[in-house]
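Dear Dr. H.,

I hope your travels went smoothly. While you were away I took the liberty of generating a structure for the chain from your last submission, since the lab meeting agenda had it listed for discussion. I wanted you to have the full record in hand beforehand rather than looking at slides cold. The sequence, exactly as received, is reproduced here:
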Amino acid sequence: MKPYIIVAEDEDALSTLLQYNLEKEGYEVGIAADGDEALVMIEERLPDLLVCDWMMPKVSGIEVTRRLRAQSETRNLPIVMLTARSEETDRIRGLDTGADDYVVKPFSMVELVARIRAVLRRIRPGLSEDRVTFGEIVIDRLSHRVQRSGRDVHLGPTEYKLLDYLMQHPKRVFSREQLLDAVWGNDVYVEARTVDVHIGRLRKAINNDNEFDPIRTVRSAGYSLDMQG
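The corresponding predicted structure, in token form, is as follows:
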């Protein structure tokens, strides 16, 4: 499944260029024209990384970062800040606010893509690895095989995508709507209760009779993958 990146940039030409180059690198990209739109998009579907311009109308990139860091759901969201400010004090301010990296305009697309890869490797290693582990569960993305405690787990394609996505964001609670967007996509109409059906199938496949169920149901909120119950 492609990592999902939101680009918050008010310059149309630059945001189009960013979208083209990031999609060419294998990322799924959403575009926000200002800080307000970025916050709404993040609330609707949590991205794997945010590329955010410092100077934007309505809500600045610094304020977007500050608000995201103040919420438990987005506290650990990787953020790469874009800015024309090159003074050391400005860079320090951006990083102190919570940005994970800071790229000064003008920049090369090769540099930006490399910075994004580096941030994802450091903060979300599961997005850049062919083998992902969470507790006793292992996903081998090259062979599309799943194992738990050394035994093979047989999953349908949707259950596989669900598990992969949850393992990329351990302990984070996702609503049914967020899981629908992440696994089924924005362009497919599926009822929210369909998520419950596939979560049930996933549970049945990965759990033996005496094994702990790592999929936690959070009442009125959604689902989370958590080995601590």
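Two observations you may find useful: The CA atoms of residues 84 and 201 lie 50 Å apart. The longest helix spans residues 109-123.

With kind regards,
E. W.
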